[in-house]
Fold:
Amino acid sequence: MPNIDKRSEIVRAARELIAENGFHGAPMSMIAAHANVGAGTIYRYFENKDVLITELYKDLEERMYPVILKGYASDRPIRERFLHLGTALLRHFIESPLDFRYLEQFHNSPYGTEFRRDKILGKMEGCDVFRDLFEDGISRQVVKELPLVILFDLAFGPILAVARDHILGFVMLDELLITRTIEACWDGIKRQAPGTL
Amino acid sequence: MPNIDKRSEIVRAARELIAENGFHGAPMSMIAAHANVGAGTIYRYFENKDVLITELYKDLEERMYPVILKGYASDRPIRERFLHLGTALLRHFIESPLDFRYLEQFHNSPYGTEFRRDKILGKMEGCDVFRDLFEDGISRQVVKELPLVILFDLAFGPILAVARDHILGFVMLDELLITRTIEACWDGIKRQAPGTL
DNA sequence: GCATAAGGAATGAACGTTCATTCTGTGACG
DNA sequence: CGTCACAGAATGAACGTTCATTCCTTATGC
Structure:
């Protein structure tokens, strides 16, 4: 029977190495070595490198949702809900730099583009919370009337950029700065009060 | 004497292939083939692949500045200046998808991180226009008092994300949507009028 | 002792780079 | 004007490496 310990050692090693060195800086042989496993053993658990990479990403996404949904109350005002999700997400990225780096590697690769295409064309399953939030916001005239995709970009573009800069050491985010950044994202998304130039 | 035609054929082929397939999807042999040139010929013009890649990026950046600075008047109000630069940048990305894709490839690679580190630690030479604009905005209390890096992320994060989504066909940006997107970026950056929740 | 897991050397494809050779255009010379 | 010699531009087969993957051997548990 396949040994569950081996599998998780492979997963751990792969995640660490890929997050730090990118897909091309993490050969299977190196992953095997860091997992204290023979090179061939990996192929007992994952059909090939592509499958390993994609599987790792799915794991990551599934571990992410509970974190940001913890304490989320969908009956609160739009703004409050957005701030909750945004800060939770940014905080999570900062606390799990390995996950974040892996996520970035994945997004900026052919795998990621394919994934995203499926998501957007397939009605964005998985992003339900955010989609609901934005659609709710639009219908209540609290959020700008823009295509969903653009609202996503306005919200996640800065969050990802800020997280990256924190992890690379270009800024040092504390709790205050996190809040102020997400509030700024909200300002970008929300309908501006009329009369204010 | 080296043939200038050959050189520019190599540059064109490299830009196209790398923009479309990424650094690892554009082997030197393929670049040579698309440039109708022998594999060794590239090395008469560029020391190695790294040099080729970096040179291409510098070209790209230098071609970009005149475009977004055209018609820029640094004596206009902060908001107007930001909208000018932002829309010009987004428009340029959309009109030159090849350049944009190359820029993304470069940014999301070790080359790009190194480049960015140098820029940020080295006082951001080259981003002078934006830095001046943000600093000016802060001192006039028109822009939020946040670290420069975060202001950059709030502005460029969405612009890059939106440009990518347009090029991948996830949204179809027209002139109106471009303006509204950049206005939304400005809303994120500007100090909000007090009293507006 | 048999079935299955694990190991890691072997394999072959792909890559960046080199280099011995070929090609080309130019200037000297008769 | 025709021929020849030469410089240096161009070539692409060949090389050394690296990598994902395979496959035969060894170890382990039942």
Observations:
- The mean pLDDT of chain B is 92.
- Residues 24, 27-29, 39-40, 43, 48-49 of chain B lie near DNA strand C (CB under 10 Å from a C1').
- The two ends of chain B are 67 Å apart (CA to CA).
